[in-house]
Amino acid sequence: MDVRVKVCGLSTAADVEAVAAAGAAYAGFVFFPKSPRNVSVEQARELAVLAPIGLAKVALVVNADNEFLDEITNKVAVDILQLHGSESPERVAEVRARYGLPVMKAVGVATAEDLPQLGAYEQVCDQILVDAKAPKGADLPGGNGLAFDWKLIAGRRWARPWMLAGGLTPENVARAVELTGAAQVDVSSGVERAPGHKDAGLIHSFVAAAQGAQEIPKL
Ligand SMILES: O=C(O)c1ccccc1NCC(=O)[C@H](O)[C@H](O)COP(=O)(O)O
């Protein structure tokens, strides 16, 4: 399968180079001060210009107001906005209209009860990020290295392109793709040697494993 990979939480020039060299499709920058992957607008501006053509730059924000989004979009060469907080469908639509950029909305999944939310957001965003729901009280709404039960979405399709995330690693990504049929995957902690520190070898192994995956044929 031609699986497209997003590596999230890049914070150095070497990270951007590793992601580009591995053949990933998206590079994610986290704007969330509590995160070990947080980057300043200035850092992101410098990193984004290093990305080659074909590597889409994704700005990840959590319940950001317009002032912050204005600053990011004015200063950083961003291709996609990723909304990773509790933004309502109305807020997603508003951000999309205001900035004229594709918007990816992250939706956390832990049980079957979380699935209807995906339907609500597919009407208003350009892509859906189907991520593991953060545990109650977690500091971070994403990037926790936790997987959800992939069988919950096996064979499910949405009206928008979607991406699978949550606890993916070079070891399990092929199985996740095979089970869910995901054409796009997102990883952060699974390609780190320590929180916030990406590992070029792991990035390479992850992209190779994702791209080598086969979807299980339906009988
Ligand atoms: O990665 C973070 O630090 C982060 C902080 C705040 C909101 C979202 C965050 N990450 C979201 C992502 O896009 C991750 O790639 C996704 O949740 C998967 O993370 P992981 O399970 O660590 O691979």
From TrEMBL:
Pfam families per the UniProt record, alphabetical: PRAI (PF00697)
Domain spans labelled N-(5'phosphoribosyl) anthranilate isomerase (PRAI): 5-208
Gene Ontology biological-process entries: L-tryptophan biosynthetic process
Record field: catalytic activity: N-(5-phospho-beta-D-ribosyl)anthranilate = 1-(2-carboxyphenylamino)-1-deoxy-D-ribulose 5-phosphate
EC supergroup of this enzyme: isomerase
Record bears the keyword Iron-sulfur: no
EC number in record: 5.3.1.24
Keywords: Amino-acid biosynthesis, Aromatic amino acid biosynthesis, Isomerase, Tryptophan biosynthesis
GO MF term (any one): phosphoribosylanthranilate isomerase activity
Pathway where this protein functions: Amino-acid biosynthesis; L-tryptophan biosynthesis; L-tryptophan from chorismate: step 3/5
Keyword Metal-binding: no
InterPro entries, per database record: Aldolase_TIM, PRAI_dom, RibuloseP-bd_barrel, TrpF_fam
Family label: Belongs to the TrpF family.
PANTHER family, per database record: N-(5'-PHOSPHORIBOSYL)ANTHRANILATE ISOMERASE
Name of the molecule in the record: N-(5'-phosphoribosyl)anthranilate isomerase
Gene designation: trpF
